[in-house]
Amino acid sequence: MTAFSLEPAQLAWCAELRTLAAERLRPLAEKGESGRVNRALVAELGRLGLLARLFTSGALDLCLMRESLAYGCTEAETALALQGLGAHPVHTHGTEAQRARWLPGVADGTAVAAFALSEPGAGSDAAALELTAHPDGPARWRLSGEKCWISNAPEADFYTVFARTTPGAGARGVTAFLLPADRPGLTGRGLDMLSPHPIGALDFDGVPVTADDVLGEVDRGFRVAMGTLTLFRPSVGAFAVGMAQAALDATLAHTARRDAFGGTLRDLQAVSHQVAEMALRTEAARLMVYAAATAYDAGAPDVPRRSAMAKLLATETAQYVVDTAVQLHGARALRRGHLLEHLYREVRAPRIYEGASEVQRGIIAKELYPRQEAR
């Protein structure tokens, strides 16, 4: 297998996932409440064995899962991705006791995970976070502050929380904690967002944590966060590619049958060239996502740059493709319940979360200049 093609078994698996998304997951998604955790959907992902694969698969498999599920059911894709994002730090940095307590529930869909990094004043600049872990005795702290824009909050069963343990130390003074949702002093509220998946804010009023709650090492939590994001950024791109492909396929079908000006829309060069551009950009984004994921699995040294490029290109591409699809469909695409109306709401957020497009460009530039100077 190369970064530019898939094996027959992988293609068959992707086709199977698309079928599962359409036939078993979408009906459950349609019964869910917008902005709330759909536990029935999460449980079905567990029964299908997809959540367990989050801990046994590489980056490319993660991308294939997210792309295939996104094509048929964006809610299922997002539910799977949020489980992985929230639980990955536990999988990679947790103690045996932490992993035994939480990962089986994540895998079978009975425990909902969340990744709590962003704050009202620290979104793209994650190193500027202000949630503070105040010392409360030997290897004990109390968390005070707020987290915001947290997916699955406030309904998750546990959170991977990043807090400042050393004031004024920037990225070097952040610690990752595994925090059960029932910890005293932790409260939350949902936020009414454009995106249909659950997003909320968390308030920490002296929430007690100990050394047993630390993920990794004290003051080394920023690398836990960045390691998680480096893995998941290409798969955010895969999510975007799945949405772009769904919009492209809907546009192909619509323009082939829609009568206009004595023929069909596809007969108009202006339309057919737009569709060709949509296909070109979608395929280019897909290849970059696969290349970044393959590089991650191979342990390549330039993974941060590749991951940033993949997320940037794919999410910006999906925005273009979905918007163009809406334009070519006309007013019908804006009606509630239309596939493109749904995709139009879904496609905007990935350009912001897990590092906005501007942040990705900064990462790419930061990686490029040392390479040039070393020549």
UniProtKB/TrEMBL annotation:
Keywords: FAD, Flavoprotein, Oxidoreductase. Belongs to the acyl-CoA dehydrogenase family. Its cofactor is FAD. PROSITE patterns: ACYL_COA_DH_1. Residues 114-192 form the Acyl-CoA oxidase/dehydrogenase middle domain. InterPro entries: Acyl-CoA_DH_CS (IPR006089), Acyl-CoA_Oxase/DH_mid-dom (IPR006091), Acyl-CoA_Oxase/DH_mid-dom_sf (IPR046373), AcylCo_DH-like_C (IPR036250), AcylCo_DH/oxidase_C (IPR009075), AcylCoA_DH/ox_N (IPR013786), AcylCoA_DH/ox_N_sf (IPR037069), AcylCoA_DH/oxidase_NM_dom_sf (IPR009100). This is Acyl-CoA dehydrogenase family protein. It comes from Streptomyces olindensis. The keyword Translocase does not apply. Residues 9-109 form the Acyl-CoA dehydrogenase/oxidase N-terminal domain. Residues 219-368 form the Acyl-CoA dehydrogenase/oxidase C-terminal domain. Pfam families: Acyl-CoA_dh_1, Acyl-CoA_dh_M, Acyl-CoA_dh_N.
